C-alpha cells in the first residue's frame, strides 16, 4: 500500500498592493509584475516537487490520504490544517480582524483564523499593531475609522528579528513595513478589512465589527528553550550512498531547540542545527509536521519501511530515503511517518510547525510598551 512521504513543496506567490518586488533573502527570483506580499508555503494549490507525487497539489493529497497526511489532531482529516506564509510588507497592511471558529462557521467556513508571526528579519522601525488600546470600545473604534484615525487606536509594538507574536482570532491588528515575517495560521483566509489608509479597496465594516473582541490574548510570546531533542547517535550514515565523511566521526552537538509558541491551534519551534536531529511525533494524537528552512540547508532522511515508494527503483524497505531543502523551502512530513532524521548541510536554522497532540491552553503573552505607528518605511535591504 502506498503511503505519503516527506514532500518538498513549490511555493505560491501572491500579489498584494502592500508587497514588494524584492523577495530576498528567501527567494532570489525578481518580481517583474505587481508586487508580491505573501509567499504561501503550504497553500492547498502548492505542488509537490519530489518523488512519485510530484505535480500533485497539497489540497488533493489531503483529500486522498486524509489522516495519514494531516494527522489525528487535524480538525478535518481531508483538509490540510496549517497555512504557512512568508509576509513581505513594503507598506502597512490594512487594519483588519479575522473571525474565530464560531464566526467562520456562520459564513460557511470550516474554521476561524488564529495566527502567529515569527519575525525572520527586521530593521529599526519595524512595528506591528496589536489589539485595541486600553479603554477603546467597539463604538469608539468605529468612530475612529470614520475619522480616518483607526490606526491610532491600536497598540503599536516595536519588533525585532527572532521574536514571536501571537494573534488570536478577534484581535484587531495591522503589520507595518521594515520586516519579513513567517506566519503560521489555521487554514482559513477570511480577512475583514476595517481601515486601509485611503487605498481604494473594499472594507468589511459590519462583518469586522461583529468579529472584534475588545480584549484578547494577543501579544509577544516569551520563547522557551526546550530540552535537547534526540540527536542521531551515529554519524556514520552519510548523506548519499558511497560518500565518505569530510568531518571526524565524533558525536554531533545537541541541537539548539526553542519552543516559540504553543497554542490550541498550532505549535512553532525553532531548531539551530550543527548536527543531525531525530524528529518524532508527540505522544497522543498524531500530527503532520512542516519544516521551513530559514538559513543553510538540510536533508530529511526517512525509512521507506514507513513510507513505501510506488516503484522498486525508489528503494527497499529499510533503505534511507532523502529530501534536500534549503533557505526559503518547506518540507511536509506526513503524520503517518512518526520519525525522521534531519541532517544539516553543515548548519541549518529551521522552523517546525505541528498541531497539538493533546489539549493546550492559550500561550502566556505580554504587550510590553505601546507606541504611535511609525511612518518611516525604507526598503528592507537599505539596512543590509
Outline:
The protein has 384 residues and is mostly beta strands.
Reconstruct the topology from this structure.
Layout: E1 7-10, E2 12-20, E3 36-40, E4 47-48, H1 58-65, H2 67-70, E5 82-87, E6 95-97, H3 101-106, E7 115-122, E8 127-132, H4 138-146, E9 154-158, E10 164-167, E11 173-175, E12 179-186, E13 192-195, H5 205-211, E14 219-221, E15 224-225, E16 256-262, E17 267-273, E18 277-280, E19 289-303, E20 320-326, E21 330-333, E22 339-354, E23 365-366
Antiparallel strand pairs: 1-4, 1-21, 2-3, 3-5, 5-12, 6-13, 7-10, 7-12, 8-9, 8-11, 10-14, 14-23, 15-16, 16-17, 17-22, 18-22, 19-20, 19-21, 19-22
Q: Could you describe the 3D structure shown?
A:
The chain has helices spanning 58-65, 67-70, 101-106, 138-146, 205-211; strands at residues 7-10, 12-20, 36-40, 47-48, 82-87, 95-97, 115-122, 127-132, 154-158, 164-167, 173-175, 179-186, 192-195, 219-221, 224-225, 256-262, 267-273, 277-280, 289-303, 320-326, 330-333, 339-354, 365-366. A hairpin with a 4-residue loop joins strand 16 and strand 17 (267-273). The protein has two domains: 7-222 and 364-383, Sandwich (Jelly Rolls); 224-354, Sandwich (Jelly Rolls). The protein has five helices and 23 strands. Strands 1, 4, 15, 16, 17, 18, 19, 20, 21 and 22 form a ten-stranded antiparallel beta sheet that branches. The chain has 384 residues and is mainly beta.
